[in-house]
Amino acid sequence: MPIVPLGEAGRWTNYHGTGVCEDAARFALRSGDAARGRDEIAIAATAVRQWLGEALARRKRVRPLGAGWSPSNVNICSDAWLLHTRRFNRSFRIAPGDVRPGVDAAGLMLVEAGALVDEVSDKLEEQGRSLWTSGAGNGQTFAGAAATGTHGSMVKHGGIQDHIRAIQLVTPSHIYWIEPAAGVMDDGFIAATGSTLLRDDDIFAAAQLPVGALGIVTALVVDSVPKFLVRPIQNLRKVEPAAIDWLAAGDFRRFSAAYALDRDPDFVQMIVNPYKPFKRPAMLRFLYVEPWRTDYDRATPGEMGAGYDALSLLGRLLDAYPWARGALLQFAMKMGYAAGPDVDAPPVYGSWGEGLDTHRPLADLFNASVTIDRGDLKHVFELICDVFTRHGGSTAVTVRFMERAQGLLAPARFTHNAVIDFDGPRSPRTADAYARVVELLDSEGVAFTRHWAKSCHLNAARVAADYGEDLQRWRVARDRLIPDPAHRALFGSPVLDGLGLTG
Predict the structure, then answer these.
(1) Which residues does 2 contact at the CB level (< 8 Å), separation at least 6?
(2) Rg (CA), the chain
(3) pLDDT tens readout for residues 251-301
(4) Cβ atoms within 10 A of the Cβ of 346, count?
């Protein structure tokens, strides 16, 4: 049996040390040695369904745990059964005969739910393929990153869940294979996975981003593109106020020409000090996609400028000396971020996966974000800086850009999105600054959403207001997948119940 207990019930702490499950019984789902992926996931899904039945009989709630990555408490539930999927992490090629007529199998891979983004990326790159976007790090499980709406950062793409083409999902009553209505995999392949086939656009859009409330994801079919190179440029530059207008309008070429290369960038990031943002240099990062070639010198993630979100430097000083916060924050940015290659340095190249890194645990770091319509950027940027100037706060403000993401509960739900992150020392002062920002955005009537896996101050009313009809469609899909209220409650937690996702 691929599920094994892991000792006595006790305490479990997430990767970043920001959430704790008390009196939790832990179990592990582990890969087997089946030659075919369809057989492997059939065995695992059957075991998961049996395990869910046992939890139901014992009246224990369950939580799937991948890498335990989310800094928020979205995956925290005490007195529950926790299913670790981290060692259920094999990936399998998909043959042309495994897909429906007209579907190109070349870019597809069957991925077990515990595989890390890094592992999926590596497997694809061995095959001459690549992910086209992901978050800033790669230590999450692919399923977990998708389940919480981890945003991408490529200006012409959406979130990491956009890679998903099919999902195997287990509830106490069914093993489902979920695809869009047009279909992806051959019916014979699906039958061999032991799954009940559901081809439905709304159910698929719900399952792309389930927030852990629709069942246990056991496998995914992940799409990819041909391998490509990226050239990073990273520097500290004073940004003119007019540059915010360019970014709001999506004129990334003009922004790039002013501060890096005179060409269309594929990734744009600006990290600013909200205290005098136009008088102090901002940390700018650009990525430019180029055709794949093998004759380039391999660079480390650090040499490519990865790790730019590690603003735990000087965190305690930032919080302890508010009178010097602006200067200390700027020093932290300079020391922590200015390691990447600038325009005048010899060009550095790498694949998409080579430019990512796994974060150190962020126990002392506050993480929060808002996602807005890109067109509102100038107004929102002014509001944010005003909050910090008037009331304090110890976070840098990071702005990245992406297109609308797939999934009914995707935070990046605007046609063109600006994702604004707030990273700084974890303290009441920092949390208060973020709370003031979101309160002001509400009072100004600015539409925005928040990342499911970060500190977000969400409740059921706010989720309903943010997602509207899409939340109703998600709930209809949930009730079709899990019609029994007792089974729905199995996947709940105090956090998910409070968000209105499991009632």
Answers:
(1) 29, 30, 31, 32, 43, 44, 47, 88
(2) 22
(3) 999 999 999 999 999 999 998 888 889 998 898 999 999 999 999 988 777
(4) 6
pTM value is 0.92
pLDDT tens across 82-116, in order?
999 999 999 999 999 999 999 999 999 999 999 99
Render the burial of 238-269: b for 16+ CB within 10 Å, e for the rest: ebeeebbebbbebebebbbeebbeeeebbbbb
Task: State the DSSP code for 219.
Answer: E
Residue 490: closest CA among 31, 481, 8:
481
DSSP 376: G
Under DSSP, the state recorded for 132 is S
CA distance 328 to 342: 23
pLDDT-above-70 percentage for the chain:
90
Strand partners, 97: none
Query: Please, are residues 359 and 139 in contact by the beta-carbon 8 Å criterion?
Result: yes
Reported as a single tens digit per residue, the pLDDT across 308-331 is 444 444 444 455 545 445 665 666
Rounded CA gap, 317 and 437, in Å? 22
Q: Which of 164, 165, 118, 133 is nearest to 402 (CA)?
A: 133
Q: How far, in Å, CA of 421 to CA of 397, rounded?
A: 6
Residue 239 three-state SS: coil
